[in-house]
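[READ THE FOLD]
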Amino acid sequence: MLQTPADSTLCAALFAPDSPTVEALEAQYPPRELPEGAAVTRFAPSPTGFLHFGGLFGAFADRLTASGSGGVFILRIEDTDKKREVEDGVSGIVEGLRFFCIKIDEGVVGFEQERGAYGPYTQSRRRLIYHAVAKRLVEQGLAYPCFCTEEELDELRARQETAGVNKGYYGKWTRCRDLPLEEQLRRVRAGEAYTLRLRSQGDGSQRITVPDLIRGKLELPENNMDVVLLKADGIPTYHFAHVVDDHFMRVTHVIRSDEWLANLPLHIALFRACGFKPPKYAHTAPVMKEENGGKRKLSKRRDPEAAVSYFAAQGYPPYCVQEYLLTLLNSGFEDWRRANPRAMLEDYPFQLKKLSPSGALFDLPKLEDVCKNVLALYSAEEVYALGLAWAKEHDAELAALLERDPDYAKALLSIDRGGAKPRKDLARMSQLREYVSYFYDALYQPGFTLPEHIAAEDAARILAAYARVYSPADDKETWFAKIKALCAPLGFSPDVKEFKRNPGQWKGHVGDVTTVLRLAVTARRNTPDLWAIMRALGEERLCARLQNALALFAESHIY
């Protein structure tokens, strides 16, 4: 039963006289002037720890939904839980989004920095706004002060457990719902602690229908709980604060984890009680991880990759991570990417309804593959910039080498880059030291372990013969022609197909000859184009390595 609207004396006792009116707030935060169909989304984390991969997943969905419709993406900080807040947790959130190139249109953009006309965007600075709406609810008889102590609430829950009924403050279990106005005033004026509760109009036996942009039509029990709106210290609960914030920031789409589904009836009830239009909801399943044949949620405590700082420390390029996120967000993205291999991510027609309601599976090997595919399309200049920025933070020696001769670094990074089939060696910048190590004497570690079928004395003969014909002026065709010409006199077939037809006639083939050269120069059997590597190393460095390897093989120290 709706109580008769309270007289002004109760509101005066509950709220400061300088509280703004709801009407004034409606004028201060008017409907946005945006194109028809534009979505206003918000990412609203609490500064209680690091930015989680699941948070990045949701924030990217918010960003794509807003940008794809010509709308606005807001970063709002929900910091009403001061007990769990970590020092400068806001900066970690902002920097995490910035690192992964998730642009904040409006809201919190740095430590104590905000941008936009619909702020403040930090909940602890919006106290008067919450109180204005709470005051209106009291005036309409839709909220009331509750003086129940924690001990009384514990006793209430114990009785409900004994009775075998739902726990909570509702129906006949509400002690303060129908207190006379005179008693309410007396207890407030006496300084007795109280919370402010919603006077629910719902019936728990009835059901409501709520459309969900991912899950379709949802049928849920109607809220009948007289939940707390303002705590004893005047700070709003999350449930109340986010309703007020979403309304006055004119949020149109709320994308959030499905853990909030149980609270959806309450949130709908709060929007209706406040006289606000609810936003469109999209409840996403959590990001999962395979383990022992099953699946579990990606865990902050158990999985280092749950923290987005892990990806920054490993040097995964931001747009590569975005590419991977889209494979999780939309099942059709990979087909689109195959049809549009060089298109910008911004060109992808992202749709919320294509999110899976069953949960995305985090797969680190797949992330590596996605990053390799994307990085293969980057120019040498782009890889150099990414690598140098990462190395300055995590590998000072590598950074110094890269900065010493940028042209040399870019030249070696350009090998086998571009073209129809670029190599896909790099997935992250933490692999860069190993990738470029044989180009720098300070990082190079010689290693001459030959394939079993090549004898050390044959390797020595190959190197000695090549040293006699080597010329730094040779183009690639001339270089390879010289190598093929060396083969037959040394007992190696100059043609791989001929070797396969008559393997018994040869010690090996031209590929084995180049393997010996490759080992001598790079200490590896698998590298990008060998001719380009030799040119990049330069004559002096190349000849020194050839002579060093020749000496070792000639002495038969390595078999």
The mean pLDDT is 93. Residues 539-554 form the longest helix (16 residues). Residues 3 and 178 are 8 Å apart (CA to CA). The chain has four domains: 1-10+37-197+231-253, 312-375, 380-438, 456-554.
